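User: Hello, can you help with two protein structures?

Assistant: Certainly.
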Amino acid sequence: MNTNEIEVTLKNMIVERLFLSVDPDEIQSDVSLIDEYGVDSVSLLELVVGLEEAFGIIIEDSDFDVRNFSSVANLRDFVQAHK
């Protein structure tokens, strides 16, 4: 899976799992998910589950750093590092 495919998958997962009323294509990779879309601690846990399911990775407690989840670009880098 290349960088673009990971980002597309992430954007679709974010919209679906967080019930956002935005087109996945409208989410900019470097925009703060927390500031722009109101992602909170509960949403972050939902993203963890989504990442594990969508990419087949296991996220350990030590991996959980809000910076990894702050934007699509950070999520992409996190996924690439764990695949």
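That covers the first. Now for the second protein you mentioned:
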Amino acid sequence: MTPLTLYNSLTRSLELFQPADPANVRIYSCGPTVYHYAHLGNLRAYLFTDTLGRVLTWKGHGLTHIINITDVGHLTSDADAGDDKMEAAAKASGQDIWAVADHYTRAFKANLKDLNVRDPARFPLATDHVEGMIAFGEAIADKHCYRLPDGLYFDTSSVPDYGRLAGARDEGQLGGPVEGRIQSVEGKRHAADFAIWRTSAPGENRQMEWDSPWGRGAPGWHLECSVMSRQYLGAHFDIHTGGIDHREIHHPNEIAQNQAYSGSADTGATVWMHNNFLVDRAGKMSKSSGEFLILPALVERGFHPLAYRLMCLQAHYRSELEFSWDNLAAAQTRLKRLVQTVSALRVRGEAKGVASAAAYGERLDAALSDDLNTARALPVLDELLADKKVSPGDRLAALGDFDAVLGLGLLTLSREDLRVRPKGAGIDEAGIAERLAERREARAAKDFPRSDAIRDALAALGVEVMDGDPLGWDWKVTI
């Protein structure tokens, strides 16, 4: 197979991937803060890491992948001021904070299943590791931290090259978008210093707090990833992933903690990888405006979740990707074409061919080995399925490799699976089939008024009859 090259955010360059142990590649991915549903931009990160894991598995590597669940410690911004996101969500809803965390954790995992994202080895919870976080803080406190009334803070000047991952080497270079995301806390020695532990204020009523050497309170957000990655993957592991916004503050802070704990310049991971934003026409998708798209909203509009997966695969993970309903509709049409082609190949599976499909596997490998270039791999899939010189059976066999790494489920998806009924659709599939059968009879009898009446009645229920559709899908639900 072609050697795998990956873009390392730490060096800002493509590098030949050389795992410490090819039989067990170790990956840590920053998981969701479970105070709300994951939006589509959040989910793009896990489609990226799923592709990474699938490619490594396909290339013969063993894999240990960890995705943490942040259920404490993440503030309402990247600043060291404001409320914990979990506490704020619980207060706003009037619910128990543990119930809030459980609800959104279950919803996140359901999203991953719907997107055909493989489960990691573990989904560790931050709240299960607070004891380890306190021990970690105690180990670095004397040399790297200082106390303020509201907690224990990390002195970023105490480690070499702080901010290297973000492209900054000193505080004066932490300007632009980074500086705008760091708010001043009275007493901080440097603007970039961050909380290791947040001590609860007198009279503060928190649902999640623990006793510590720095008072009763809760850990800082960055601490959990250093502790959990070290516990499950070791002091140094192969790949750390996250969204590109983590590259500016969260991951540099994580690296600083790792260096302080190890007493060396080791960042904790060999390769740091970041996917780019999903954007809409108003800017990057986020929860801050209170308006954001979640996966069930796509289903309510009649889109299959795998259409979103395909839309993401059509762009390189390091490129910004624009979300629009038109783009999603185009991806769903492309997915339908692929499913229809595969169905036709199954029917003709015994036909003979005069050429081998091996070259397509080699081209797939070359594309994915070039920093997971799925956008380059998809046209190869189209060419394979259309190549009549290769027998249908051989094309289906070769499709197994594409399915393994792209995760589209083309060998198992059916036309019926892709007929998603939007919320509010007033008729089920059996009813649609019955009315369409009546319409075919009317057309065969040249009873066009009755045919048109059935079409109009279906349209009133949100069903568009697709006469002459080149894909032959008969109908779609439009509500």
